[in-house]
Design goal:
about 140 residues
Length: about 140
């Protein structure tokens, strides 16, 4: 068994995608995401809410929004944080921001039906409790 070198010990693990987290790790990551969303993303990029571009004031109650915003936040950290290149912010603006915000704020997106100050829970699609890949039962 080999010991870790000092460089290996000092290297933090990369962040895990929020959908893989649970418990305290999930709660802490969601809190960090919320701070970034409320203090960076929305003040700068949160355009006016309309029926054709909805936003839910309880976005954290929409799992799709959490997943997409977390991906956007991870890209932000990678492309604008320490060690990023000078073109990182332009890449983030071009490659990540528009697609995420457009899909979240689409009239048929996760916030459809939500209005300013009013959250409407979404029904998830139903799935038959049948394994489509199960071997066929033998005919008697």
């Amino acid at each position: 068994m080999s010991e870790d070198t000092p460089a290996q010990q000092d290297t933090p693990e990369p962040p895990r995608f929020i959908l893989y987290l649970e418990g305290a790790a999930y709660a802490n990551t969601l809190r960090q995401l919320t701070l970034w969303t409320h203090h960076v993303l929305l003040p700068v990029y949160g355009r006016e809410v309309t029926s054709s571009a909805p936003w839910c004031s309880r976005w954290w109650d929409h799992p799709e929004a959490i997943a997409k915003l977390h991906g956007l936040w991870l890209a932000w950290g990678d492309l604008t944080g320490p060690g990023s290149t000078m073109t990182g912010p332009a890449t983030w603006h071009r490659d990540y921001l528009p697609s995420v915000m457009d899909s979240l704020r689409a009239p048929d997106g996760p916030f459809a039906g939500c209005k300013p100050g009013m959250h409407r829970p979404k029904e998830t699609p139903s799935v038959d409790a049948v394994d489509p890949f199960e071997p066929p039962s033998s005919m008697a």
